[in-house]
Amino acid sequence: MRDRIIEALRDSSYITHGASKEQFLVYLMGPYKSYPPYDPPQQGAAEAATQRPTLDDIDGRLQRGELDLDADEALALLVQLKRDLRTQTGVNAFVATDPEIPLHQMDAATQSIEYTKAADATIFIAPAMGDNLGVGIETGSVCEHLAERPLRENVVFLGEANVESAMVTAVSERWHVTTDDFESYDDLNKAVRAHLRTIA
Question: Taking the model in full, what pTM does it have?
Answer without folding.
Answer: 0.81
